[in-house]
Amino acid sequence: MTGITDKQTRIYALIQAIIRYLESHRNEVEGVDLTLKKLASMNLTENQLLDVPSQDSRHNAILNDAIDGIKVSPLLNEIYSCLSDAKNDLAWREDNAKYYQEGSDLGEGYKNCNLHTLLIGPDACGFHHDDFNLGVFMLGPRTLYRDHNHDAPELYLNLSEKSGWRFGSDDWQDYPAGSLIWNAAGEPHATKVYDHPFISVFVWLENINSPCSVIHFNDWEEIEKELNHSTSSST
Ligand SMILES: [Fe+2]
Fold it and tell me: How far, in Å, from the CA of 142 to the mean position of ligand 1?
């Protein structure tokens, strides 16, 4: 008898599904191995699970849509079903630029619709850690998450079907569901969300309390205009 609740069991299953995915993609990007090493050093046994009250958000309909979008990828079957099952157990929070320096030019898209939940980290729903984050992150449709960087090395596991990324240059590239993106400490990155919401697993390996910095690019407004005028040509 473990004495854990059904809710804790669902959250635990989600964390395990994410770890299993990373284990089976160990050599794809550098950050996967670093993340798994860090996870292996933690005590992630069931009796360490926290019991944090769940928390809904004003973006619930978009979140449902985002989770629904994961269904189409066979690679992500397990994460999809565990996340669907645990969705209402989790504490979903908006970032009101808490992670950014005051006055940062984040743009309306990010401010209007961003959401995350922590599975491992401070105030997390699964396991506590002072200087590590593993969670799920969502952005609303037609959002440019403007170029930025941070001291925290960051791993993304893209769960949505298609998202655009660039890394300190003007060149954008689309990434499919199941793709992994590694942003080493200080490396700039930006994300483009098309007509469907963006959802991903994200990891911050360390330095989680150092703020993010926005890096100015001249094409932000043009890209935002394009995203907002896009029709069925983008998914
Ligand atoms: Fe980032």
Answer: 18
Can you tell me the distance from the alpha carbon of 213 to that of 71, in angstroms, rounded to the nearest whole number? 34
Q: Give the CA radius of gyration of the chain.
A: 17
User: Would the pTM count as exceeding 0.90?
Assistant: yes
What backbone phi and psi angles, to 5 degrees, belong to 123?
A: 55, 30
pLDDT score for 234: 45
CA–centroid distance, 217 to ligand 1, in Å, is 16
| 5 Cα: distance to centroid of ligand 1 (angstroms) | 33
Q: What tokens appear for 163 in the block?
A: 């998202």
Looking at this protein, which amino acid is placed at residue 125?
C
- Per residue in 153-187, pLDDT tens? 999 999 999 999 999 999 999 999 999 999 999 99
CA of 9 to the centre of ligand 1 (A): 29
Domains of the chain, each with CATH number or no CATH = 6-229 (2.60.120.10)
Q: Which two tokens stand for residue 123?
A: 């105030």
Q: Report which secondary-structure segment, H or E, holds 11.
A: helix 6-23
pLDDT at 129: 98
Residues 6+ apart with CB under 8 A from 229: none
| Overall size of the chain counted in residues | 235
Query: pLDDT tens digit string along 143-154?
Result: 999 999 999 999
Q: Residue 3 Cα, ligand 1 centroid: separation in angstroms?
A: 37
